[in-house]
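Quick check before the chapter quiz. The format below is the same one you will see on the exam, so make sure you can read both the input and the output lines.
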Amino acid sequence: MAAQRTPKLDRKLVAETALALLNEVGLDGLTLRVIARELDVKAPALYWHFKDKQALLDEMATEMMRRMAVEPRPEWADDWREAIRAQMRGLRAQLLRYRDGAKVYSGTRFTDISYAEGMEANLRRLTKAGFTPRAAARAAFTAYSYTIGYVIEEQAMGPATFEGAAEAGAAAVEAFDLDARAERLAAYPLSATAGAEMFRDMDGGFEAGLEAVLAGIGATLRSAQPFQEFD
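Here is the expected output.
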C-alpha cells in the first residue's frame, strides 16, 4: 500500500487551517503552536512562512478576501446606494462565517491585490454617480469601516452566528441579559431602554445604521464641488 502523501506545507495551507480552527478556538486561542499541532508539524516549521501572528492574520484576511472574490455576486443596480447596501451586506455575511471574523479582517494588510479589481469597480461606480475621486474613496471607506465595526461589536456582544457556535452563542446571550442591564440602569431610563434597540435585533440594527451612513454620505460627500473642506 502506498504511503499517504502529506500536503505540502505552504502559506495557503497554513492560512486555510487557521481559518478552520478559528471557529473552534477563537482569535485569542489561535496560536502558531495550535496550528502546528493541527498540521502535525513542529511550530518552528511555521516560522518559515510567517514571522509572527500578525503576518499570519494578514494572510488569513487575504484568504477571506479571495473567497469573497470568487463567490457569485448579485447584479448591483446603477444606484450607488443600492450598490453599497449590497456590498456591505455581503461583507457582513462573510465576516459572520468565522468566529472573530471581523477582528481578523480589520487592521490587516492584504498580501496580494486580489481586492483591487472589485475596489476599482466600486470607486468607478461612485465617480460615475457624481462623487469626486477623493469623495468616492472616503464614501467607500466610511461604509466599510461602519460594517467592520458593527460586526466586531456584534460578534463580541451578540449571539455567535458562525457554524457550530451554539454554545458560544448561548453564553453570549446569557452574559448580556437585557433585562438585567435595564435593572442595573433603572436610574437612567433612556440608557436602560436603549439596550433593546442596540443589542436585540442585530440584523435590523445593521440595516438602520447603514441607512444613516448612506444618508450622511449622500449629504456630505456626493457633490460636484471640489473636495475642499478636508484640505
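If your answer matched, good. The chain has a mean pLDDT of 86.
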